[in-house]
Design brief:
The chain has 289 residues and is an alpha+beta fold. It has 9 helices and 11 strands. The protein has helices spanning 126-142, 146-166, 175-190, 198-205, 209-220, 224-242, 247-253, 259-270, 274-280; strands at 2-7, 13-21, 32-34, 37-50, 55-59, 62-66, 69-74, 80-88, 97-100, 114-118, 120-122. The strands form 2 sheets. Strands 2, 3, 4, 5, 6, 7, 8 and 11 form an 8-stranded antiparallel sheet that branches. A hairpin with a 4-residue loop joins strand 4 and strand 5 (55-59).
Length: 289
């Protein structure tokens, strides 16, 4: 797998963005010359797209970075939904360094002004990325401020880079501690749409509640209850920006049985009601370039 290395001492150049929904099962991506980079983030279904060298199948929860090419085309019909963004790099030179994945080894220096991204891969936290891409759409439409758009797009690319290469616990863990922390985080992710209780997590892993609470706070710097709530709110923000589901339904989908409790919790974490948050980023661009 190729890894693209973008210098971001200056932001990448934003061209345009949107969200695409295929009209039916017979839709296939157009054939065209691609003159800049296209970043595709899949939210539903599968996209079958190719260039002169490779055929790509991009599935839900994955992304693809396509470089400028003489021919970009769909090789199979697709019923899918995805965010797309076009950008140029290095004054339209479009010439990032490219490595084989075996040549890039961690840990990477988070302070360097560069973004390394495999050409295709899974998005570890799709909900976080959706919120940023939706905000980029709204800024592009409402303000038409190219400087803002370029920086927001670069921030979204930095988010993906950080998710892939820089995420992890706040302290160095080894052995059983590292495994327990990872298992707790995975368990919460698995059950994030349910009403998770700390006591249930403790029982699942065979520890008492006090030990699990103290352990998680020491490792992450955040209480277990707070971590669960923040993860639920990240999912809720993605659903508010990416769907038209009623607020009550979204609350239910992230584990709240009462709409009032969900709204109160959301406002406590974000400072806005769910409806206000949604209205702030309400406009979607449902077309593809």
């Amino acid at each position: 797998m190729e890894i693209l290395d973008f210098s971001v001492e200056k932001p990448v150049h934003f061209n345009w963005t949107g969200k695409f929904e295929s009209p039916d099962e017979s839709w296939s991506h157009m054939s065209r010359v691609l003159t800049d980079f296209e970043w595709i983030v899949m939210t539903e279904g599968e996209l079958f797209i190719a260039d002169e060298r490779t055929r790509y199948t991009v599935r839900e929860g994955e992304y693809l970075l396509m470089s400028p090419t003489e021919r970009q085309y769909g090789f199979q019909p697709s019923l899918c939904k995805f965010y797309w963004t076009h950008f140029s790099y290095n004054n339209n030179g479009n010439d990032p360094a490219i490595y084989d994945d075996g040549d890039v080894r961690g840990p990477l220096d988070a302070g360097q002004p560069r973004i390394l991204l495999p050409r295709q891969g899974a998005v570890p936290r799709l909900d976080r990325l959706i919120v940023l891409l939706k905000q980029l759409q709204d800024c592009s439409r409402k303000y038409r401020n190219q400087n803002l758009n370029c920086h927001m797009l670069t921030a979204a690319l930095c988010e993906l880079y950080s998710q892939i290469y820089l995420s992890g616990g706040h302290t160095v863990m080894k052995g059983e501690k590292a495994q327990l922390y990872t298992d707790i985080v995975d368990y919460i992710s698995w059950r994030i749409r349910e009403n998770i209780k700390v006591s249930e997590i403790a029982a699942y892993f065979g520890y008492n509640e006090k030990y699990i609470t103290t352990f998680f706070k020491k490792i992450s710097g955040e209480s277990l209850k707070s971590y669960i709530l923040n993860e639920k709110m990240e999912l809720a923000k993605a659903l508010l920006t990416d769907t038209n589901l009623p607020v009550a339904q979204i609350g239910y989908d992230v584990g709240f049985s009462d709409c009032h409790n969900f709204s109160s919790a959301f406002k406590k974490v974000t400072g806005q009601s769910p409806s206000t948050y949604r209205n702030t980023y309400a406009q979607r661009q449902l077309f593809h370039q």
